[in-house]
Amino acid sequence: MAWVADRRWGRQKGGSHPVAVGPVPCALNVPCIESLGPECGSPHDPAVSRELRETARLIAARVLLRREEAHAFTEDLLEADPGFRFLPDRDRRLAHELVLGVVRWQGTLDWLIQRRTSDRPQKRPVQVLLRLGLYQIFWLDRVPDHAAVNDTVDLAHPFRVEAQAGFMNGLLRGYCRERDAVQTELEQLRQADPALGWSHPGWLVARWMQRLGPEKTAALLAWNNAASANYARINLLRVRPTRLIERWREEGVEYDFGHWNWVPENLVFRLKVHPPLSRLRSFGEGWFYVQDPSTLLAVHLLDPRPEERMLDVCAAPGGKTTYAAQLMDDDGTILALDLDADRVRRLRENCVRLGLRSVVCGELPEDEPGAPAEGLFDRVLVDAPCSNTGVMRRRVDLRWRIQPDEIGRLAALQGDLLHRSSLAVKPGGVLVYSTCSLEPEENRGVVDAFLSEHPQFELQEDRELFPPESRSDGAYAAKLRRK
Fold first, then answer.
1. Is 50 exceeded by the pLDDT of residue 200?
2. If you average pLDDT over residues 1-9, what whole number do you get?
C-alpha cells in the first residue's frame, strides 16, 4: 500500500483557497463568455453583453449547471468560470454565496420543488434555476422577493428553457406569498427529519444522532450550513502583527481578532471583507498564510524546536508545514512530502512565498515500502487523508460525495500510514497523528489500534475539536512519544 494513496476527495488540507481547475468546456445549454466571441474568455469582446459580464446570478446558475454535468468541485468550477473573475467584488461575493448556498441546501431545496411538482422530474436547467430562486427567497433576507423571482425567470432565455418560464414564475411567486407558513414548515422539518431539513445525507445524520445525541447533532448540522470564513495566520518571520494590520487597512481588508486556546494571541485573524486575496500585496509578499485555526492544533501538539529534524508526510498545500517552520524560527530541517506532483508544486510555491529556507519539498513514490529515513527525525507529523467530516462547512460538495463505506476504508489506510511513518521517529522523538474527521474510527480508533501493535510508543495527549464548541473547523490530533 502506498504512503498516501487516497486522492478521491481532492483533499486540500489547512486552507480555504480552492485550486483552480482551469477553463471548463461549456456544457450543453450553458451560456458562457467563451461561446460568444473569438476572444475566448475575454469580457471585453464586443459580442459579450453587459449583462453576461456583470450578472452574478447568471454566473452562479452556469456554475451550478456545470456542477451537475462534471465531476469537479464547486469552488474550482466557480474560480475557473471566465466571467466570475471579472465581476466587481460585491458581485463576486453574491455569486459565491449563491453557488455555495445552493449546494449546501440542495436537499431541502429539492424537497420544496417536489412539493409543487408532484415529484415530476424537471429539466436540469429548470431544476438549477428553481433551486437558485428558492435559495434567495428563503435564505437570503437581503434579496427582495421581486428580484429573486424576476432575475431567476429572466435566466430562462439564456439557458434555453423559455417554455418553462411561466411555470418557474408561478412556483416562485407562490412560495413568496406563503413565505411565513413555509418558514414554519421548514423549522418543523428540521425537527422531524433533520437530514432533510438540514440538507445532509440520512446515513450520516443517523450516525451522528446515535453518537452525539439530537442536541449536538443539530448544532453540528447548523454549523455545517453556515458560510465559512477565511482566516489568516501571520508569518512572524516576515512581519509583526501591527505592521500587517496597517497594510490591511491600506488594502481594504476588514478583520476580527480571534481567540482559541491552542493558538497564540494575535497570530490568527478572521478576514471579514477583503478583495481577492491573491491580488493583495501583503499576500504576495508572504506576510500571511490562509488557514483555519483548527489546522494549527496538530503543530501545537508537535511543538517543533529550532535545529531539529522534522518529517511531514502529507504536507501539501503547506499550512502545517509552514507554521512548523515558523515555530522553529526557520532553523532546522523539515522534509515535507506528498504523493501528487501538483500538490508538491503548490507546497513549494507556498514555502517560497513565505520565504522559508528550512523546508525541503519532495514527492513520495507510491510504492515506497517504508519510512524515507528510519529513526532519523525528532518529530514526525502524519496529517492523514480522511473523510473530512469536520470541514463540511468549508467543503460544500463533500456531503453529496461521501459514502458510508469510506470511513472504514480510510481507517485502514490511516493505520497503515501511521505505522510506516512511525519508523522515521528516533527514540525519544514525537509522532503526531491528525485528521479533520469527527469519526472515532478514524481518530482514537486508529491511535488505539496503533498503540496495541507498537508498545514502543505511548500516548501523551489527544484532543478533538467539535466545530460548534471550538468555533473552528473540526479536527483531531494525538501526540505519541517513542520510548
1. yes
2. 34
Counting DSSP H helices and E strands in the chain, the numbers are 21, 11
CATH architecture of 106-192: Orthogonal Bundle (1.10)
Cβ density class 139-169: b for 16+ within 10 Å, e for less: beeebebeebbebbbebbebbebeebbebbb
Q: How many CB atoms lie within 10 A of CB 187?
A: 11
Cβ atoms of residues 411 and 437 within 8 Å: no
Nearest 5 degrees, angle CA 228-CA 187-CA 110? Answer: 70
Q: Which of these, 475, 19, 78, lies nearest to 292 by C-alpha position?
A: 475
Q: CB-based contacts of 270: which residues, under 8 Å, 6+ apart?
A: 229, 230, 231, 255, 256, 257, 258
- CATH code 3.30.70.1170 for 230-290: yes
- Phi, psi of 249, deg, nearest 5: -60, -40
Find out whether 189 and 108 touch, Cβ atoms under 8 Å: yes
Domain ranges of the chain: 33-104, 106-192, 230-290, 293-482
Q: Which of 351, 361, 386, 436 is catalytic?
A: 436
Q: How far apart are CA 401 and CA 388, in angstroms?
A: 11
Which pLDDT score, from 0 to 100, does residue 417 have?
Answer: 95
pLDDT at 371 over 90: no
Active site residue 386: no
Say how far apart CA 174 and CA 116 lie, in whole Å: 9
What's the distance, CA 279 to chain centroid? Answer: 21
CATH code assigned to 293-482 = 3.40.50.150
Bridge partners, 462 (sequence order): 478
Task: Find the range with the poorest average confidence among 137-146, 288-297, 305-314, 456-465.
Answer: 137-146
CB hemisphere CA count around 115 (13 angstroms): 14
Distance separating alpha carbons of residues 269 and 292, to the nearest angstrom: 10
| Distance from C-alpha of 123 to C-alpha of 148, rounded to nearest angstrom | 20
The bridge status of strand 308-312 relative to strand 377-383 is parallel
Identify the band that residue 368 occupies on the pLDDT scale cut at 50, 70 and 90.
low
Q: Which three cell numbers stand for residue 40?
A: 475566448
